[in-house]
Amino acid sequence: MRLKFTIAAAAAGILFASAAFAQDIKIALIAGKTGPLEAYAKQTEAGFMMGLEYLTKGTMAVDGRKINVIVKDDQLKADLAKTLLEQAYNDDNVDLAIGTTSSAAALAMLPVAEENGKVLIVEPAVADAITGEKWNRFIFRTARNSTQDAYGAAAAVPASGEVSIATLAQDYAFGKDGVAALKNALAEIRPNAKVVFEEYAPQNATDFTASAQRIFDALKDKPGKKIINIIWAGQHPLPKIADLKPERFGIEIAPGGNILPAMQIYKNYPGMEGAVYYYYAFPKNAMNDWLVAEHQKRYNAPPDFFTAGGFAAASAAVTAIQKAGGTDTEKLITAMEGMTFETPKGPMTFRKEDHQALQEMYHFKVKANGKDANDLLDLVATIPADKMPIPVRNKR
């Protein structure tokens, strides 16, 4: 009798262990799907799902465990983003989370990950503070940070001759971090260039006449090359600034990269140069080839800026789970620190000190005659990760 009981108990234990192992991998994807950055959020979601598909060869499973993605809309609101992440960890019992679109919302989410002892992969928010002074050990970021944007922009500035730069940025964490990072990057790799004026405008600004006049006044009498560097998310102010004819003062405009619909206005300004996180025609690797072909087939358009970011976050998650042998948080952290993983941009590596993904950027020039609406940019140079000495800003 005791033998039968022992055998039955052992069998039950095996079944229980098997069932536990076979439980779904739950991932929360939090994004600002309502509001002015809706397009960014939708691209992140599309890229994340396509990334999971590619990396699991269509099975949507890792090591026999199905992946269940729970999508939540934080509406770009910091308080809501915080609440949704708390719900994801505690009510939905997710193993890890991805998010979010707004830097302010992402910053609100960071302590929630620490309080719950669960991994948060930040994508696509870029404020330096996320992997800087507000960082904690549960935070990993596949998105580039403001400093990586800044090093890209700095690398696109001529390396000789006097260069005076005025910045136009949004008046919140993204814009302010971006300007501070640009100043530091210029000092590091382009000491011949200086930011001589900073202009900040509301996120929803539509009239830039006063801002442009202040910028023109600050630059017009400077010797050498004069550049307006625009750091902006959402509806781009480039046409409004260009309509005020900065060229009459010898002033050029250098916009950052953006999503394709926003960059389509660039074609009116051929020869304009800047730096971009991703443009579908630049990376040359099998993963990007698949993404470009499949996205074109499914959406009748090439993949965009944040599509690649979502795909990268999926790659980080899948690679980490495989390397960790499951979803235990401490094993994930151990696996992810220093981990290199493939993305449509090529390999990224999570730096051990702050979990920021080190990655390439691209120096572009606007084409004179693209073959269609999305054929916009020529590659001037790939800026390797090791040529961007991103400082570690946390207190680990």
Automatic annotation (TrEMBL):
Coiled-coil region list: none
The keyword Transport belongs to this UniProt entry's keyword annotation: yes
Domain of life: Bacteria
Name the UniProt record assigns to this protein: ABC-type branched-chain amino acid transport system, periplasmic component
Keyword Kinase: no
Source species: Microvirga lotononidis
Chain ranges of the Leucine-binding protein domain: 25-371
Signal sequence region: 1-22
Alphabetized SUPFAM superfamilies for the sequence: Periplasmic binding protein-like I
Name of a matching Pfam family: Peripla_BP_6
Keyword annotations of the record: Amino-acid transport, Signal, Transport
